[in-house]
Structure formats: C-alpha cells, structure tokens
Amino acid sequence: MSRHERSLPASTRGAGPSRVSNPHIAVPHDQRKQELNREVAKLDAELSNIREEIGQLQALSALRSDERRKLLQELEQLSVAPGNAKGKNTDGVSGTDYSSDDFPWYGELKNQMERVFNIRDFRLCQQGVCNANMDSRDIVCVMPTGGGKSLTYQLPALLNPGCTLVVSPLISLITDQILHLREAGIEAVKITGGTPKAEAREINSRLVAMAQNRPTQGREIKLCYVTPEKIAKSKTFMSMLQKLVDGGRLARIVIDEAHCVSQLGHDFRPDYQKLHILRQNFPHVPIMALSATCPPRVLDDLLRVLGLKGVVDGNNAKVNGTVYFCSPLYRKNLHYKILPKAAALKAQITAMKEYILENHANHTGIVYCHTKKDAEKVAEGLKAESGGKIKTGVYHAERGDQEKETLHRRWRKGDVQVVCATIAFGLGIDKGDVRFVLHHTLSKSLDSYYQESGRAGRDGKDSDCVLYFRPADFSNLSSMMASERGGADKFHHMLAFAHDLVECRKIAFAKYFSHASQLSLTSWATADADALSRCGHCDNCNRDPNSFERRDATLDSWKVLRIVDAFKTSGTQLTLAMLTDLARGNSSGRDKAALDLEDVCQGKVELTKDDLESLLVELVVKKYLVENYHSTAYKTVAYLSNGPLALQFTRFSKQRLETDSLAPKLECCFRTKQPKGKGRNRARESIGSKRRREPESEDHEHNDFSDEDIEELEEPDFYGEMDDFIVPDKQPSRKAIGSRRRPSRGFEALDHIGSSDVDVSWSYSMRDDPKSSPTKRRRVSATTNSARSTAKFGRNYEREVIELSDSD
C-alpha cells in the first residue's frame, strides 16, 4: 500500500473515483424538485375542481335557460286568442263549417241517434265530426276520454252503405264496443287473435258476400273491429278488404287510440306503424283517426305514418286537407284526490275497502294496480275484508281471452262491482256508470293517469278519481320506468302531480299538457272558465288550510345535498331510504360506517321520516336530486345523486345561506298531524267537502293492528344488490365522511340501511293514531336493537357520529 493510499480514509480506499456531488448543492436541488412536483399536483387538482365547477355551472345555466324558455312558451300561449286553433284557415278562403246543421243528412243523423243510441243531443264536437264523416273526409278527432268519440263513427256507419273497419288496440276495448252495439241492435263483429278459426272464416265469408252483393247469412255487417296485428300480418284479411273496396262496400277506416301510431306518444305500439299500408293499398277510402291526447308533435307523426294530408279546421274546412276537430280536455264531473297510502298492503286494502263502502257502496268502479300480482291480491283482499259486500274481478294480460270477456260481461251486468286490473283494462272502456276509479299506486305518466282515470263518469255524472301515494313508492316505480324512452321524465311529472298539496288538479293537467305535449292551454278552457281558473272541486281546491303547512326547507335541503355531496367522492350510492336514515341520524346495517354529520352539514336534519321523504321527493321533482340506475340480473335500482341545480345550494356555506340575499330559498308543503283524539286513517278521507258524509264518532277505532299486521308492513324493494359497494382493506374505525380536518383514506360501505329509530317503519295510519303508535324512545348514547343490526350513538370530538355495526 502506498504512502498516499495509507493517508486516505479507510472507507475510500480502492473505491475508485468519487461519484458523490457536493452535498450542500444536491440535497436542496432534490428537495426543490419534490416541492415543485407537489405544487404542480396541487394546481392540477385545483384546476380539475375548477373545471368541474365550471361544468356544473354550465349545466345549471342550461337548466335555468330551459326553464326560462318554458315560461316564455306559456306566456306566448296565454297571449294567443282561443280562436286561433291549430289548423284554422288564415288565407281568407271560406271553407265548410261542419259544426252547422245545414246538411241533407243531418235530420236522419239526429233521428238515428235518438232511436238507436237513445241520445238526444250532440256533445262537444260530435256534430261536426259526424257531418265530416258523412261527407267522406279524412278526419283527426281529439276528444277527452269519455267525450263520446265512438258515436262519431258508429252513427254515420248506420247511414252509409257498406262496412266500417275499426282498428283498435285492446281486446277489452273491442269486446266493450261489440257489447254496446249488439245491445243497440247493430250488427258488429270482431276478428282478433283469440277469435276461433271457424268464427273468423264465417265473418270473412259474410264480408266477401257483401263485397259481391250476394245474399248473406244474417244482417249486413255494419262495423268490423280488428286489432292492428290483423292489418300487419294477415294476407287473407287484407285480400278480403281489397274485395270490399272493389265492390264499393268499405265505407271508412277508423283508427282508434291513434296516438299509438307515434313513437313520440305515451303508448306507442309497433304494429300501429304498419297501418300506413291502409292508405297505400286503399287510397280512396276515407280514414278517421281518434285520440284523447294528441299533441302537435304526435299529430305530425300520425299524419306522416297514416299518409294523411295537413289538417284544416273543422269549422272552416277547405276541400283539400284532413279535417281536424279538438274538444276541451277538462271534464268537470271528475273529482280528483290524492290520498296518503298505507305502508302495509293489508292496511291499504282496508283503507280502500272502507272508502268504497262509505262512498260507493252500490256503485261500479275500477282499481288500477301496477302489477298482475297486486291486482290479484287487491281483488282478493277487498272481497275478504268486506265480507263479500264488494264483488271483485281480476283483469290482466295473463288472463285468457274468454276469461276476460266473461268478466267484462259480468261487470257490465253488475254481477261484478269492482274490477281490479292492470293497464291492460284500459283504452276505450265505455261503461257510462263507473262512479269511481282508484289507483293503488302511481301511474307511469300523467298522460296514462289522465286516460285511466277517465274511465270514470262517462255518463257525465259526478265521479271520483282517487290515487293513493306514498313517497317511498318513488324508488320502485322510478326504476321500472328507467328502461322506457323518456320514461323517467314522464314519471317525474306524475310524481309532481301526486306530491302537490296546493295547485288545482285541473290547472296541473293543463300546465303539463301545455309544456310536455305542447297542447294549447285553451284545450282546458270551457265556456264557463279559462284554463287557469281553479276547478273548485278537487282535493287541493277543497283542502283544509290546517291540514298542511308551508315551511322554509332551505336549510334542510342544504343539509341533504351536502350529505349526498360528501358520499359522492366515496363512490357509495344512496337510495331514498338510505338517504332518509342518514340525514336523520338513524342508520343500521351489516357493515360499519361513520358519518360526521356535524362536519358535513352542521348537524342532522330535524324532520320526521314522513316529512323528510316528502322533502326528498320535492328535491327530485325540482331536479336538485337526480336518479342514477344500477341494473342487476334481477332488478334495476334507483340511486340518488346531486343534479346540476344542487350547486345553487352546495356552493354556499350555512352562514351565507342564512344571511346572503342572493342565496336560494326553498319552501315545501308538509301534511300536518291530525289533532289528538281525532286520528283516523288518512287513506280513508272522503271526496269533496260538498259530498262528504257525516263524520263517525271519535271513539270509532280503525287502526287496531295486530302483531301480524305490523310484520306485514311492506317496504318497497329498492335496496337492490350492493355488489358495487367496495370496502377497502384498510378501514378507519371512527373517522367521518366529509371531515375536512381528518380526511379518511378509505370508506366503509353501507348496506341495507334501515332505521333504528322506532318510528321509521310506522305506516301513515299508525303515525296519525295516538292509540296505536308506539312510544318513541329518547335518542341517547345507547344501542337500539333492530332485526339484524344495531346503531350506536356516541360523541367524537364533540360531534355527533353514527357508527353502524353488525349485530350478528
């Protein structure tokens, strides 16, 4: 070893040239790079948040602009004179006024109407439509459900030579019409998928004989009803029609429920679109299209599909064009009411039974149910609960044609009082003395509800339309509508209608059809009042001011939206039930999670379960909350998240929300509890104060629930599968979601959240009945047992924290 090597430190001997830079330079250089990277990442995150906020503000701006457009549209409609209806001639050329009686056939029309149909006077636009029919014009007629559309083609069919072909979508509708016509002594036949082959061959032979002017067995067939499938798929039937045309014996083609032609309508049927071959094959046979609701966009589609010319006004019709008639859609004999729905099926059936016996003991009615299973259970329950006083029948798609027809006959004869049915029992049912239509649950759209409730009171006499509603139904039905085109938006309008405790039902209908369907508001005007005058006889017009209260719900809304915002970053989704429990500070489940309510929104929402559910529906209706749908192999689940409008609230702090004049405000109407000692099942309220019976004694008890009844309380099955709720391996024990001071690294998932508070599973009737309501426990730092889990309430850094733990 050289002397030089011996002078070096041992650690450097034989190490070769030094590769270490000056430490006083290297360390600060690396540290600076790390600091810069952190700053860049921080700015990237901030810019990402800004871009997200800009996107939210742009979405908010778009929504508000759309609301402004709708308001301007309504303002424009209110500025239009009622006489300026679509289709009216404006070129100064005089046309035919079909509403007059200056026609050679008018006298015979009147005579036959009174002799055969026992009707003395025309209603609405019936006279004009019949005259245009006799004049062999193409016609589009829009009349309200129960307005008398059938007469406008059945009466002219008696006077015109040959057979009138009627295309109708439902077996129940066709059966109903055939029964009516045969009772009136008119020869009418039907050919549907359920018609026996021998009977179909006989009908076909009779029609061919008519076409060839040969003698036929029996009287001449004046009306032949078919389903659209016959037109679309039966070459034999189309060949027979051609023979009728060649022989000059096909008087007219009538397409009932013509809105089914359009994909833009609320009840589109694919086979209806194939009806274009009627005009294509038989260009000189007049076509008549009938509907109860046919907004402009559907009308345009209908004209295109059926090959009809543009419309001209029936009161001033030029020679060329399709004659258009439209009558007011408002029917003042129908009294609408929304009643709270009991949570348990048994309790709800009891409520409907008592309503029917108290208000319509000897009247005919319909109960619409959402599913076949519900229809069968309700029918069975009403019969059993009433001790056989209410004679019920069931009608749905899985019943055989013969079974349906038998029920229809028995119902018309009065052997069956109440038909419990799905919407398969719907379009065109023409039993005049239906005094009530009950809806066991929400319809899928307000269009559908208008059609279905319109089965009542077709004879013009007072009739009741009652819908039972509970906010908890929202999630189930919303999920079912998710797969339909525009289904969610249509359902929201139905939800808003049922949720509203203030606006007149007539005005609500008018506004909906004006905005959603672009129908003129004048469609809801009458000779006595304009469209926006209150009807004076619906539930909201007659509502007791003490039965509800309008409260400022701004702070509660802010809290709800902040909670949803806090869960957004965790990737966890909330159903309406889960959000209700979380916001009220009541949660339980198999997994554990902690929510720092104080940190997220400065405390829980101080509302009852019923009131909070109503507020959540309000937030959905007003688009502060939106649904996201998650499909599993078995169902679709609706989860709630903040919509673009939520930013109106969430961008404010609580202090600014309470003090800033520019901060948003939100009011909500809540039902009030009935006075102690007068609690009755709210689902049994009568219709209209003018027609309400004398109240029963206050000691008459209606809510004596047994333990078995309580166990049957039905919660909508909207919890769904929770496979997408991922639980990280490393989980914080008590850190809270949304905490700004101690952010959590992971999130503990929520599953099957139900309330641990005793009152969460109360039905409406139980909450209103002091005798049947269990005593509410004080919320203390204790453990409340539920069926499968416990909820512990404690304090963490002087904040209320909810910890969920499994009880197993």
Automatic annotation (TrEMBL):
Keywords: ATP-binding, DNA-binding, Helicase, Hydrolase, Isomerase, Metal-binding, Nucleotide-binding, Nucleus. Residues 348-502 form the Helicase C-terminal domain. Gene3D superfamilies: P-loop containing nucleotide triphosphate hydrolases (3.40.50.300), Winged helix-like DNA-binding domain superfamily/Winged helix DNA-binding domain (1.10.10.10). Residues 27-36, 682-705 have a biased composition (Basic and acidic residues). Its EC number is 5.6.2.4. Residues 130-312 form the Helicase ATP-binding domain. It catalyses: Couples ATP hydrolysis with the unwinding of duplex DNA by translocating in the 3'-5' direction; ATP + H2O = ADP + phosphate + H(+). GO terms for biological process: double-strand break repair via homologous recombination. InterPro entries: DEAD/DEAH_box_helicase_dom, DNA/RNA_helicase_DEAH_CS, DNA_helicase_ATP-dep_RecQ, Helicase_ATP-bd, Helicase_C-like, P-loop_NTPase, RecQ_Zn-bd, WH-like_DNA-bd_sf. Pfam families: DEAD, Helicase_C, RecQ_Zn_bind. SMART domains: DEXDc, HELICc. One of its GO terms (molecular function) is hydrolase activity. Its main location: nucleus. Residues 1-36, 673-710, 723-794 are annotated as: Disordered. It is found in: Nucleus. GO terms for cellular component: chromosome; cytoplasm; nucleus. NCBIfam families: recQ_fam (TIGR00614). Belongs to the helicase family. RecQ subfamily. This is ATP-dependent DNA helicase. It comes from Mycena citricolor.
